[in-house]
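Good morning C.,

I know you're traveling, so I'll keep this short. The sequence:
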Amino acid sequence: MRSWLRIGIVATGVSALLVGPLLPAPAGAQVAERYRVMVTNLMPLNDANDDFGKDLAKELRDLINQFPTHQPVEEKEIRDAADRFDLDMEDLDCVRSLQLAGQINARVVFCGTYTEDKDADTFSLQGVQFAAPGGPAFMIEDKTWHKDDHDTAAIEISAEFETYVGQLRAAQFCGDFYQSKDWEGAERNCTSALEMNPDNAQVRFVYANVLFQTDRLEESYEETVQVIEADPLHEGALQLAGYVAANLERNDEAREHYSAYLALNPGDARVRMQIAYDLAQAGDVEGAMLLTEEGLAIAPDDVELALRHAAFATRAAQDIASAAEPGGALSAEAAALYRKAIGSYEIVYGVQGDEMEVSHVLTMIAGYMELGQLQDAIDMAARALETHGDDASLWSRYADVLKRAERVDEAIAALNEVETRDPDFANVKARQGSWLLDLGQEDEALSFLQEAVEKGEQTADAMAVLLLANAHSKGVVPKNWGHALRVIGLAKSFENEVDDGTRGQLDFWHGFSLFSQALEQETPQTLETAQLTLPKFQQSARLFALPRVGSYAEANSIGLQQFRDATQQYIEIQEAIIQRGR
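The tokens, ready to paste straight into the viewer:
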């Protein structure tokens, strides 16, 4: 359930996600361990006097230097760094300042602008902020100051910086506890960080992941949606929202989030396949197929993507078919999915040829069979035998298709090819025998069924019962007693190898068929019919008297005594007729 994290938080690292550690870990850190803050001179706008910005920055550097965890970058170092990039100190707006900070190993930047009201001798600060490269900005509320109050402004901004540092500390602890999988600690620190700064989307994202890891999916989804609302391009949040929505069975929302993420990375097939896999695992197989389908529109020759698309389309078709009424026709929707799957498999087969895994070839043939396109299935199997002809499983599938097309002789020959390539392949002889039974070739089937027992493919009990089933369906049910007795006789060729339960079953239906046949034949009640049927009634009576037949009848709620009584009655009748006739 957590596989998506390989491309989410874990891949980037929580510390990086939260803009890196902005606070030194050990207590009592030395000055050299303090993090560097680049305090730029606020930029004057509209010809405002630049002294106010310079004085405020100088005072703020002095105040930050008193922090145990942070220290200011010297003004000269900032100027020298700006010079190397052909910039003046006055050119350092917030964008350039953040870019420059990375060059001098500054973790935090102070920047902003101001305007001057010369008549009122005041300066109005605008867009003033503390920011970490790659992270959210901590905004200082716009405020107007008298020209002589630069030191008071610096003190107030320094207090805001202390708040910012507290937020960073809580955010870092949030990430640290998450990284160590201490979900309780992570939740405590993440919620604390969000109380300090509800707009920190990165902390909220980590918190959403904590909720996800503790199986509170509804809450996790709500938090993740807030992250996306604040940052529509947040890739991790889009992935998480998609996965959680899928697990909540909100498939439309899941697809929307995943599509938004993939719009940012349209050509990344690896990520697309991972997302599709996660979506399928969450139960939206068709959504997974659509994602891979979009990828194929971008990269139609991507073999791995085509394989994934084919697999998802096949699964989606199977899901629809399995939900339909048993025995019903394949729906148009399922048929369309099978055709999509076959199309993608054909792409792979065209590229890989004999290197394509035979399991994919078998799935392709099965797709044609599900569509009822038996000739296409036969043609595909025959084509595949040219590239994968040594594979016994492919010959087996070829035999199945031929059997379905009622080309049984060819199907049996194909099974011989299976045995040639793999003598231990399961149920070759049993299938051949079963197929001959379906054709009404019971005598020919017997030798194959006997071989199936000799090879250990099936038990003698299973083969005897298979023959008995044929005798029942084609003999007992339609009252074709001659067929029933003949095939039961074949089944009894296994008599010495089967258990008492199977022998009891064979003997009961043997007796029943004999009794029923004799009952029909004795109706004229002549000397000839009595002489014909008396041995049959007598044999039936012997069979019905067997203890194993009694056990079978009792287990299957058959009133055996009525058959015993009736048999005895008809024996007496036939004996009387014969006696009278003599």
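Safe travels,
E.
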